[in-house]
Structure formats: structure tokens, C-alpha cells
Amino acid sequence: MKRVMLTVAYDGTNYHGWQVQPNGETIEGILNRCLSELLGEQIEVIGASRTDAGVHAMGNIAVFDTDSPIPAEKMCYALNRRLPEDIKIQRSQEVDPGFHPRHTVSSKTYEYRIYCAPFPMPVRRLYSYFTYVPLDLTRMQQAAVYLVGTHDFKSFCSAQAQVETTVRQIDSLDVWQEGREIVIRVTGKGFLYNMVRIIAGTLIEVGRGYRAPEEVKRILEAESREAAGPTAPACGLTLVQISYRQQKL
């Protein structure tokens, strides 16, 4: 028996998120089905991040156990032949049998993209949030500074979340412009449900001039979801990378 880790990239547009759902196709469901067919075993993967419907990923992580003689590093090639075009494995490798993708210390990096123009661009519609209202990049950058560090992010957590604590650590939060797109990149050790999308929605309001940059500090102190901005649409969010600092690969 060996444990195999997959680095999974996907376009989340046509899926009901990562986690298996009773009514709807999911990334996890397709991986389970294709791996079971490939290996002739009942496979159920364990994912690192349960991304929501419509959210994309360049490097989500999943692990599974198998008795298959196929070398772990070759499984990505065989599996990619069975997977649809919008889900592909970027790497497969054997890891320690005790490695768990959600219980091992890690950092996650997300990007939220905002397309700013007078009119929508059809080829960007699935991977960015469109706004015709101009955004002030400098104001957004000033607001982002207040979110870096360890804080209680209760104001930036969906009301449906059930967690022991809403304290989280953000290691970096950068905002920059690429052509007509504004990119919000955030790295941290863990995130609450919808936390990155609520951060994006709040920074968008700051960029539009609806809120002052320093108001973000007061939003944190309020510890109330009602104090923050809206949850930005899922299409603009991509899980870029998950890094494990103590895992021997």
C-alpha cells in the first residue's frame, strides 16, 4: 500500500465545487471515478482545499492510497488520458503514508482577478469579475495592508461556516495591475469559508470609493460579517498553489 499525492489543476466553471455532492458533478467525484477505473480499486481522494462551485485551481492537492504497481510518478500520465479537458493532473508522487493534505502545516496562495473596462471581454468572463466602475489601485493597496498578519477574520467569514476559531494568519496580500486586470494575491496558512472572496469584495468597494482604506481596520475589529463588503463572484478566484513546509517529497 502506498500513498500518492496529486497536484490538480481545473477550470471550475462547469462543476459544483470540489467536494462530492448528491446532485451535481464535482472535481472530487470525477477523480474518484477515474482513479477507480484506472486502478481497479475503490478510490476516494482526500483534498487539501474544498473549493466552491465556479472556483478554479492551478495547484490543489489530493492524496489517495493504492496497492497498484504503477509507479506514483507515472500515474499522472495514465490518469490524464481519462480525465476531461478541464481537469488535469500536473504532478503525481509518492508521499509518506501518514501525510494528510489538510492536517499538515501548509500555506495557500489564491488570486482574485478583476477585469476593469467600459465593456465586458467575453474571453475573460469565466476567469475574472467584470466591473465598468473604475477602481483606485492605490486605495486598494493601502487597505490590503491592514489585513496582513494574524487577526480575527470573523467579519470576512461566511455566516454558514462552522469553525472552532476565526483567527487566521495572512502572510502577504498584494494588489497590482496587469493591463485591464487588477490582481489580488493572498497567501496564508489557512482561510475561512469565502474569506478570500469577501476580502476581494471589500477591496473592490474601497477601490470604487465606497469605503476609506482605513475602514478595513474597523471592519476587522467589528467581528461581524455585516461590517464587510459583499462576497465577490466565484469566477474570479483561482487557487494558485499549496506549499507544504515539512513534507519530504
How would you describe this structure to a colleague?
The chain is of the alpha+beta class and 249 residues long. Strands 1, 2, 3, 4, 5, 6, 7, 8, 9 and 10 form a ten-stranded mixed beta sheet that branches. The chain is globular, with a radius of gyration of 19 Å.
Distance between the termini: 17 Å
Average predicted confidence as pLDDT: 95
Q: What are the segments in which pLDDT stays under 50 over at least 5 consecutive residues?
A: none
Largest sheet: 10 strands, mixed
Query: What is the percent of helical residues?
Result: 10-25%
**DSSP E strands, number:** 10
Order of helices and strands: EHEEHEEEHEEEHHE
Derived from helix and strand composition plus strand pairing, the structural class reads alpha+beta
Fold blueprint:
Layout: E1 2-10, H1 27-39, E2 46-47, E3 56-66, H2 75-80, E4 87-95, E5 106-116, E6 129-131, H3 137-145, E7 149-152, E8 167-178, E9 181-188, H4 195-208, H5 215-222, E10 237-244
Quick overview:
With 249 residues, this protein is of the alpha+beta class. It is built from five helices and ten strands, in the order E-H-E-E-H-E-E-E-H-E-E-E-H-H-E. Helices cover 20% and strands 31% of the residues.
List keywords for this structure.
single chain; 10-stranded mixed β-sheet; globular; 10 strands
